[in-house]
Design a protein that fits this description.
heterodimer; A: 11 strands; B: 112 residues; mainly beta; four-stranded antiparallel β-sheet; 11 strands; globular
């Protein structure tokens, strides 16, 4: 079972790039890495998913090194509305583990 | 329609009550999930259904009983709960296991 570790919190300012890293040392060969955003009293919302190397979509990029033991979510030019909790998720056929979550606070 | 709906939004129940939580999706997804989330903690997986069959049961106490009547519906039957079971119960669905999950808004459960 992949144990996932994330920083508890991060602070940033509007317009800056934010990088949040998740460690998953025991990731299995078939596991995928997915990142979610959650606002208070809401269900998590999908941001991006990857298996290896780099993935980019309209809101974020995901960097996964060759050994896949970590992943980094990159949010370009954050705004106040990006203040939320960010979770990495490692999912395989037999198990699924959310990271502990990183609370991102964006200030003006 | 990319929505997962959950009912009720809030539920207060006593320790001897029997109640059910409901989850519905009409996206044709074949995987459905139940999670429990305590305040300031990550979602904790309880059950996963894939093609209407239970594929993961994370050693959840028998007072929680899942049911998947068809590919669009997922129920969680509750009986003889404890106060520590009070939490936000989230349902999610995905095209298949491993794909992005769509989460519902959750049911806020309070056990008195």
């Amino acid at each position: 079972l992949a144990k996932t570790t994330q920083p508890i919190s991060m602070d940033s300012y509007e317009g800056q790039e934010v990088n949040i890293t998740c460690s998953h040392n025991n990731i299995a060969t078939n596991d995928y890495i997915t990142w979610y955003q959650q606002f208070p009293s809401q269900g998590p919302r999908f941001i991006i998913q990857g298996y290896k190397t780099k993935v980019t979509n309209e809101v974020a990029s995901l960097f996964i090194p060759a050994d896949r033991k970590s992943s980094t979510l990159s949010l370009p030019r954050v705004s106040l509305s990006d203040t939320a909790v960010y979770y990495c998720l490692v999912e395989g056929r037999r198990a699924l583990t959310f990271g502990s979550g990183t609370r991102l606070q964006v200030q003006p | 329609d990319t929505e997962v709906t959950q009912t009720p939004k809030h539920l207060v129940m006593g320790m001897t009550n029997k109640k059910s939580l409901k989850c519905e999706q009409h996206m044709g997804h074949r995987a459905m999930y139940w999670y429990k989330q305590k305040a300031k903690k990550p979602p904790e997986l309880m059950f996963v259904y894939s093609y209407e069959k239970l594929s993961i049961n994370e050693s959840v106490p028998s007072r929680f009983s899942p049911e998947c009547p068809n590919s669009s519906l997922l129920n969680l039957h509750l009986h003889a709960l404890q106060p520590e079971d009070s939490a936000l119960y989230l349902c999610a669905s995905s095209q298949n296991r491993g794909n992005e999950q769509y989460f519902g808004p959750g049911t806020r459960l309070t056990v008195t």
